[in-house]
Design goal:
The chain has four helices and three strands, in the order H-H-E-E-E-H-H. The protein is mostly helical. A hairpin with a 5-residue loop joins strand 1 (72-76) and strand 2. Keywords: Chloroplast, DNA-binding, Plastid, Transit peptide.
Length: 150
């Protein structure tokens, strides 16, 4: 144990000498602080870059949403007896029913309206997926991110 004590004492003396040379802080502490500043600085730069990217994504997403809201999609039933119009964000705008559809009775008319609505909805969702994929690609993200929107 005596040799360990001498080694420890010798190490302490070296650190004290180093501390005196470096203005009161040990070299190890200074190196750790410099490394920490470098790492923290890099992390801060990364954080700032991510914040900027997030703002760009938010601005572009709002632009795409406004564009979709202003776009209309028509869906028709077989024979085009009923027409349903939705916006790009799936908001119903209007339903047009022909006299011929009215004469088919309420049960058949209900089916025709549903068929037309489904077609308009499908077109609207497809347009949204395409625009979101375009947004993702313009930001350097991989295509297909909108697959979760099924």
């Amino acid at each position: 144990m005596g040799s360990t004590g001498c080694k420890w004492s010798h190490q302490n003396q070296e650190e004290e000498a180093t501390t005196a040379k470096t203005g009161g802080r040990s070299l190890k502490v200074r190196l750790l602080q410099e490394c920490s500043r470098g790492i923290l600085g890099n992390m801060q730069n990364l954080f700032e870059t991510l914040k900027k990217a997030q703002m760009v994504v938010q601005v572009e997403a709002v632009r795409v949403q406004k564009e979709l809201a202003a776009t209309e999609f028509d869906g028709y039933c077989e024979g085009e007896l009923v027409k349903v119009t939705l916006t790009g964000n799936q908001q119903p705008l209007r339903t047009e029913i022909t006299e011929a559809a009215m004469e088919l009775g309420s049960e058949k008319l209900s089916l025709l309206i549903t068929e037309a609505y489904k077609e308009a909805h499908q077109k609207s969702v497809q347009a949204m997926k395409e625009r979101m994929d375009g947004l993702a690609q313009s930001l350097g993200m991989p295509p297909g991110l909108s697959e979760g929107l099924k």
